[in-house]
Amino acid sequence: MNVRARLALTSTVLLVGATTSACGGGAPADASEKDFCDTQSSLFDDLLPEDMANPELPSNEEMARAVKDWGQELEEIGTPDGISDDARAGFEQLVEQAGEIDAADFTIDQLEELEQGGADASKAAQRQAEAFADYLTETCGNPLDGIEMPEMPEMPGATE
Length: 160
Known about the structure:
Signal peptide: 1-22
Keywords: Signal
Distance between the termini: 23 Å
Protein name: Small secreted protein
Number of domains: 1
């Protein structure tokens, strides 16, 4: 699995996994949009390899530690004023999910299972996770858009 795919899957798992968590509620509700967006994207910055020409994927333990640390940062920063109630609830679910993650959650079998897990969540939890994902994209953009990936070498015999 390449770096971009693993980061994308990690963010999907967290958003889907958030739909299965109970609500939290302790994060501030007056963060600046800049601080909020910077904190949201910091997970990807922390996990990206320094040398993208020869990327080394983080271990499952490193991924779990990074997600837990990121969840704590999210909780400290909170959300901007004016976020909808559903999006705020989705944020709180994400923070809680990040705090509960461990290395075993990053095995390929577990990632695939978690990716499908949102279907079992309540409709309210699914709506909240989707509202937060929409709010995040509208407010901050897609955190993977700014990631420059190395060009893939051409495969011998491949045709366009």
